[in-house]
Write a structure and sequence with these properties.
Length: about 500
């Protein structure tokens, strides 16, 4: 979001859709294309936090010219083409005078944008912030060149600072709410506040994908308080109010998931209920489906399988008008997990068949942004969990192995989760040596991933493997697992 103080070289005008970029995406969903962008970035040593929403913003013409990191990635993906060929405007046509002066004042750093990771400046030109894991940029990604459009509350609450330490540890991540800012009266919210809220949701999800929930949950509660403070202050326009309510609901779900994944089930239930209430108040079927989806998952994990079935069915009813087969597929898998918990094999198999059929219809533009994690790997993993619950260990292990092999490397936490599922299924299925090998892979990832769920699964696997401590590789796994530091 550009600062309102920037003088544009052009008058305001509505964005023009980037049809050239949309054509290059082809039949891939925005989430699948975003994953391809991240892979291409890794190939050339760049770090970008591309997701489905970023792709949507580019295609809608909201980003007329990408930042320098994205430019290098796109030109690597489509060799021989220029930015103009990709449907972008020339950089000189979208940059405001203030940004040019700022760029001239900054020292040159090879391989970095002169604007510290931001989109090129100009009135109405949103910028994409630096990836929070980028090892080079110590500045606050939410305060690029003192973006005055963001309120002080948001700038302090939504991850102020901490861009570099996130790559090494979640401990110092700057999600703490500034007390003085929180108590200060909040002005009526504008579009920039809604944008900052949406960005906070994306950042939290990105960090969870890579590092897991432990250490992040308590810090993520601060942006949620700030979001509801904005709702209490009111918005200047109805469209902004709708975005704020939707963003606050999605943030409540994200914080609820962090609580869920770190074993705080009561907190998670409260956050999901808050999101559901927000969805009902505003008549937002997408948010309602998401809240019920997570409620079903939580109920399954908390040992309430019948509630899981009913919540998943409610989610499917809410999702009906959205027209997303992939979303309905995921919700059918949530229902299958509930049936498995009830030991209803027939009900589980019927839901699994429905999920697979819907998944095969492919992605669509109606798929929600938050579903970027749901691909073939997650489909396999959730089916593995169903067979594991039903006690069919060989079948569960087969699906868990496939999930681990298919998972995008970006989702470090999920790779650890799927490998932990595989280790447990192999151990319970009487294959201790293979279980130990899979368990070792999980241990290798625990320096990067902080998830109570994964640690609990691994502890269960270790207990199952104790009688086989003399088997090949098992003793080494048990010793290394026993040396893990205790978590509080």
């Amino acid at each position: 979001m550009a600062s309102s103080t920037v003088t544009s070289a052009q008058p305001d005008r509505p964005p023009q859709p980037n049809l050239a970029f949309r054509q290059l995406r082809g039949r891939r969903s925005p989430a699948e294309f975003a994953a391809a962008v991240r892979r291409a970035a890794r190939e050339i040593g760049e770090r970008v936090s591309c997701d489905a929403r970023y792709v949507g913003r580019v295609e809608a013409g909201e980003i007329r010219c990408p930042n320098y990191a994205y430019e290098r990635v796109f030109l690597h993906m489509f060799p021989g083409r220029t930015l103009t060929d990709l449907g972008f405007a020339p950089r000189s046509s979208v940059r405001g005078r203030r940004a040019r002066a700022a760029e001239d004042a900054l020292p040159a750093h090879p391989g970095r944008s002169p604007l510290v990771g931001g989109e090129t400046y100009g009135t109405g030109e949103p910028y994409e912030t630096q990836d929070p894991h980028h090892p080079h940029d110590p500045q606050d990604p939410y305060d690029t060149h003192h973006n005055h459009e963001e309120s002080d509350v948001l700038r302090r609450a939504f991850m102020t600072g901490g861009a570099t330490v996130a790559a090494a540890s979640l401990g110092p991540l700057g999600l703490a709410l500034d007390a003085a800012a929180a108590q200060r009266p909040v002005r009526r919210a504008g579009a920039s506040d809604a944008g900052a809220l949406e960005e906070a949701v994306r950042r939290i999800r990105l960090l969870d994908d890579r590092h897991g929930a432990d250490g992040l949950y308590r810090r993520a509660a601060a942006p949620l308080r700030a979001a509801y403070a904005l709702l209490d202050a009111g918005a200047s326009r109805q469209a902004t109010a709708d975005r704020l309510y939707s963003g606050a609901g999605e943030l409540a779900i994200s914080v609820g998931w962090l609580a869920h994944d770190s074993g705080r089930f009561d907190d998670a239930r409260s956050h999901y209920a808050e999101a559901l209430a927000t969805a009902r108040m505003t008549g937002d079927p997408g948010l309602e489906a998401h809240a019920f989806c997570n409620t079903a998952f939580l109920a399954r994990d908390a040992g309430r399988p019948r509630e899981a079935v009913r919540a998943a069915q409610a989610a499917q009813r809410a999702a009906r008008p959205l027209g997303s087969p992939r979303l309905t597929s995921l919700l059918a898998l949530r229902e299958a997990g509930g049936w498995a918990g009830l030991a209803d094999r027939v009900g589980c198999e019927q839901a699994l068949t429905r999920a697979q059929t819907l998944f095969e219809r492919g992605p669509s533009d109606a798929d929600p942004e938050w579903m970027s994690f749901y691909g073939e790997a997650e489909l396999e993993a959730l089916e593995a969990q169903c067979w594991s619950t039903l006690g069919d260990w060989p079948r569960a292990a087969r699906h868990a192995r496939r999930a681990a092999e298919l998972q995008d490397p970006h989702f470090t936490r999920n790779i650890a989760l799927y490998s932990a599922e595989l280790a447990d299924d192999l151990a319970r299925g009487g294959r201790p040596d293979e279980a130990a090998t899979a368990g070792m892979r999980v241990l290798d990832l625990l320096d990067e991933v902080q998830s109570s769920r994964i640690r609990t699964m691994l502890a269960g696997t270790a207990r199952v493997l104790l009688p086989h401590r003399r088997a090949s590789g098992v003793s080494a796994f048990l010793e290394r697992h026993a040396s893990l530091p205790r978590t509080v």
